[in-house]
Design goal:
It is a single chain. The protein has 356 residues and is α/β, with parallel strands linked by helices. Helix content is 32%, strand content 15%. The protein is built from twelve helices and 14 strands. Helix 1 runs parallel beside helix 2, helix 4 packs parallel to helix 7 and helix 8 runs parallel beside helix 9. The longest helix has 20 residues. This is Alkene reductase. It holds the Pfam family Oxidored_FMN.
Length: 356
C-alpha cells in the first residue's frame, strides 16, 4: 500500500515523500512585494516537505490581491525570492511559486491599480486594503480581448522570473475565486466573445495561460490548482462535471506536471478528475478553511483512492516539522489564527519542533 512517506518522481524532481505544503497567504512581504529574510527562514524550516508551494504571488501589480503579498514582476522581486529558494535548497527542499492574479478580488487602495476581470461585475464583499481596513470591492474593469492576451503573457513572464529566482517550478492558481476561476465561472464571466458564452469559451483563458507558461519554462515545471464547484468569493460554476471534463481534456495534451485539486466538490467528481488526469494528481482533503484539517488518516484514504500526493495547509503553519510528526505520530501544534495574516515573526517563525 502506498504511504505518504514513499518517494515520488515529479517531473525532474525526486520527492523524498508525498507530502506537499499547500500555498497559504501570510502577508509578510514588504509593501512593494519583496520577499523578506523571515520568509526565507519560514520556508526553509519546512523544507522536509516533499514539495513546498509558496503563498500566492502576483504576476503583475494589477494582479495583487492584498497588501504585503509578494510579486514576481520585477528584478528586485526576483532577487528577493532568490534568498528564499537558496535557503530551501540548502535545507534539501524543493519549492514551486504559486502565481495568482486576483482579478476582481482587489481594490485600488491595495496597489494603486483598478481591478480587472472577465466582466464588469463587482464582488459583493469587502476586501482588506491595509491601513484603510475592509472596503467594498469596486466594479472591475472588463478586460478587452487584447488585454486578456496580455494577462496570459504576464503569467508566462512571471514564470520565467520564477525560474530565474531559483524556483523548481510554478503552480497556477485556478481556484478560490481568483482571475482564472473567474473566467471559468458562469456568474463573473458574462463575456460574449471567444473567452465567454460557452464552456469552451470559459475554459479558454485557463488553457492559454497553461500553454504559455509551459512554453516559457517547460510543462514538467508547471502545475495548476483547481476547486471544482468552489464558491469562494461568490463563484458560481454551472455544469461543473461538463466544465471540468472540458478543462481536463484541453489541459491534458500540454503535459503539465500536476493537477492540484481542493476537495470541495463530491468525492465522485474528484475520482473522475483523477481518472481523466494523465499526470500527477495532488489532493488537498481539507478544502479551503474546511472544518477539518488534513490529517494522516485523510491522507492515507486519498492515497488509497488514487491521489499521488497530499497537500497539507493549516497544519503546516504551526508544525514546520510536520513530516516527522506524522511519521512518529506526535501531536500537532495548534496555530494562532490571529497571526495567520500579517505581523512579525510571532506566529510565523516561533513554532517549535516535536523534539523541544
Amino acid at each position: 500500500m502506498t504511504s505518504i512517506f514513499d518517494s515520488y518522481q515529479l517531473g525532474n524532481l525526486k520527492l523524498p515523500n508525498r507530502i506537499v505544503m499547500s500555498p497559504m497567504t501570510r502577508n509578510r512581504a514588504t509593501p512593494d512585494g519583496l520577499a523578506t529574510p523571515s520568509m526565507a527562514s519560514y520556508y526553509a524550516q519546512r523544507a522536509t516537505a516533499g514539495l513546498i508551494v509558496t503563498e500566492s504571488t502576483q504576476p503583475s501589480l494589477q494582479g495583487q490581491s492584498a497588501p504585503y503579498t509578494p510579486g514576481l514582476h520585477n528584478d528586485e522581486q526576483v532577487a528577493a525570492w532568490r534568498t528564499v529558494t537558496t535557503a530551501v535548497h540548502a535545507n534539501g527542499g524543493r519549492i514551486f511559486a504559486q502565481l495568482l492574479h486576483a482579478g476582481r478580488v482587489s481594490h485600488p487602495e491595495i496597489a494603486g491599480q483598478h481591478p480587472v476581470a472577465p466582466s464588469a461585475i463587482a464582488l459583493n464583499a469587502d476586501v482588506f486594503t491595509g491601513p484603510k481596513g475592509l472596503l467594498p470591492a469596486p466594479v472591475p474593469r472588463t478586460l478587452s480581448a487584447q488585454e486578456v492576451r496580455d494577462q496570459v503573457q504576464a503569467f508566462a513572464d512571471a514564470a520565467r522570473r520564477a525560474i530565474d529566482a531559483g524556483f523548481d517550478g510554478v503552480e497556477l492558481q485556478g481556484a478560490s475565486g481568483y482571475l482564472i476561476q473567474q473566467f471559468l465561472s458562469s456568474n463573473a464571466n458574462q463575456r460574449t466573445d471567444a473567452y465567454g458564452r460557452s464552456v469552451t469559451g470559459r475554459i479558454r483563458f485557463a488553457v492559454e495561460v497553461a500553454e504559455a507558461v509551459a512554453d516559457a519554462i517547460g510543462a514538467d515545471r508547471v502545475g495548476i490548482r483547481v476547486s471544482p464547484g468552489g464558491q469562494v468569493w461568490e463563484m458560481v460554476e454551472d455544469d461543473v462535471p461538463q466544465l471540468y471534463s472540458a478543462l481536463i481534456d484541453a489541459l491534458a495534451p500540454i503535459g503539465l506536471a500536476y493537477l492540484h485539486a481542493i476537495a470541495i466538490t463530491e468525492e465522485d467528481a474528484l475520482f473522475a478528475l483523477r481518472k481523466a488526469w494523465p499526470t500527477t494528481f495532488i489532493v488537498n482533503p481539507g478544502g479551503r478553511f474546511g472544518p477539518r484539517y488534513t490529517d494522516r488518516a485523510w491522507a492515507d484514504q486519498w492515497l488509497a483512492n488514487g491521489a499521488d500526493l497530499i497537500s497539507f495547509g493549516r497544519a503546516y503553519i504551526a508544525n514546520p516539522d510536520l513530516v516527522e510528526r506524522l511519521r512518529i505520530g506526535a501531536p500537532l501544534n495548534e496555530s494562532d489564527r490571529d497571526t495567520w495574516y500579517g505581523g512579525g515573526d510571532a506566529g510565523y517563525l516561533d513554532y517549535i519542533s516535536h523534539q523541544h
